[in-house]
Write a structure and sequence with these properties.
This protein starts with 8 loop residues before the first helix and ends with a helix. Among the domains are: about 5-90, Beta Barrel (OB fold (Dihydrolipoamide Acetyltransferase, E2P)); about 100-255, P-loop containing nucleotide triphosphate hydrolases (Rossmann fold). It is built from 10 helices and 13 strands. The chain is an alpha/beta fold and about 375 residues long. The strands form 3 sheets. The chain has a 6-stranded mixed β-sheet with strand order 10-9-8-11-13-12, with helices on both faces. A 5-stranded antiparallel β-sheet has the order 3-2-1-4-5. Helix content is about 35%, strand content about 20%. About 35% of the residues are buried.
Length: about 375
């Protein structure tokens, strides 16, 4: 395969998703600057595809101070002065879409997973991994990003009633696209073609072991990633992808793979919750009291719908849980911002105090020196 950086500058940029909109954003940078796209992010350095070849560079001190860190899929501006041994990312172009979740573990705030995505392939399988609540969360963060969701039921050859699973998903989520295929057997993969057009960026999300790497390899046409063995007890694969990375497929689409996600905190997806649960909101709007808690109030349309089978109690409980989680994440983010502001002003106060003390010492030293002269 011909290395990508051997293409001329313009055709190469188009090859990685560059278009007139990105070009317009880049025009304000005059001088020794290169546009590029982040294909992998490490702890302190970033792999960037550019018209001058692939570069591995740090970010500028200004970006680090502002806590602006690139992610895979970002279009960035690289200061390129090889004769002075100066190569670094100095700016991140505004993101078209941003796929994020709440910080994993005990961390606060938003964790951006990838940027400038057109389609998110949410990969699951019909047996061990299948979970409606997990799919809900993937759909929420996808719709919140601005990208288009497509659910992939991989390993369809291992399940006899695959049409039943498709119907179950669509009954829960409406008109979301669901594609059943087998990455290992390479059957049904052609159904992805409408989303894999030149310049379009797609990403695979899903738990470890659902076959994302096998699917990637099938699309790329070569085994660029090692795929793990399947455990017989639970059908899960070993976690083989450890870092997000971007590759260009032979048909010109751009693919981002991610490690399996253990936690899917929904961050700021409150609006998307309402859109995903339009049936719950429909019934809630018909309750007798506007502040109905949907517990024991008379005239509660939610409880009536659950009683007559119009709404499942499980679906309503999932809705309540997601609403509470979204409120918690929002509150946690606000507390984090307040803490940052407090730290900022504490730092300013300390600097001001040090300045005043130095000024007093300066005046005292000047006075003492003056006294000695007079003496």
């Amino acid at each position: 395969m011909t290395p990508l950086f051997q293409h001329n500058h313009d055709s190469f940029l188009t090859h990685i998703g560059w278009n007139d909109d990105w070009e317009e954003l880049f025009t304000k940078f005059q001088g020794p600057y290169l546009p590029g796209r982040v294909c992998a992010a490490h702890k302190t350095r970033y792999e960037v595809l550019t018209g001058k070849g692939p570069l591995t560079v740090p970010i500028s001190g200004a970006l680090r101070t502002k806590k602006e860190f690139p992610v895979v899929g970002d279009f960035v501006v690289v200061l390129f002065q090889p004769e002075q041994a100066t190569e670094m990312i100095v700016a991140i172009l505004p993101r078209k879409t941003s796929l994020s979740r709440g910080g994993a573990g005990e961390s606060e705030g938003e964790q951006v997973l990838a940027a400038n995505i057109d389609t998110v392939f949410i990969v699951t399988e019909p047996c061990h991994d299948f979970s409606i609540p997990r799919l809900e969360r993937y759909l929420l963060i996808t719709r919140d990003s601005g990208a288009r969701p497509v659910i992939i039921l991989n390993k369809a050859d291992t399940y006899d009633e695959i049409s039943g699973k498709i119907n179950e998903i669509q009954s829960e989520f409406g008109d979301v696209v669901v594609i059943a295929l087998s990455a290992l057997q390479q059957t049904g993969i052609d159904q992805l073609s409408p989303y894999l057009t030149p310049g379009e960026t797609v990403i695979f999300l899903g738990s470890s072991g659902v076959g994302k790497s096998t699917l990637n390899n099938a699309l790329i046409g070569m085994s660029l990633q090692k795929t793990g063995d399947i455990r017989e007890d639970d059908g899960r694969g070993r976690h083989t992808t450890t870092v997000r990375h971007l590759v260009v497929l032979p048909d010109g689409a751009i693919l981002i793979d991610t490690p399996g996600l253990r936690e899917i905190r929904i961050w700021t997806a409150g609006k998307q919750i309402d859109e995903l649960f339009t049936d719950v909101n429909y019934f809630a709007s018909r309750c007798k009291f506007s502040d109905c808690t949907h517990q024991h109030e008379p005239g509660c349309a939610i409880q009536k719908a659950i009683a007559d089978g119009s709404l499942s109690s499980e679906r309503f409980l999932r809705y309540r849980k997601l609403v509470k989680e979204a409120a918690f994440e929002k509150n946690k983010a606000e507390i984090g911002l307040k803490r940052l502001e407090k730290q900022k002003f504490m730092g300013i106060s300390i600097l001001a105090k040090e300045y005043r003390e130095k000024k007093k010492l300066g005046k005292k030293a000047s006075s003492d020196a003056g006294g000695l002269v007079e003496w």
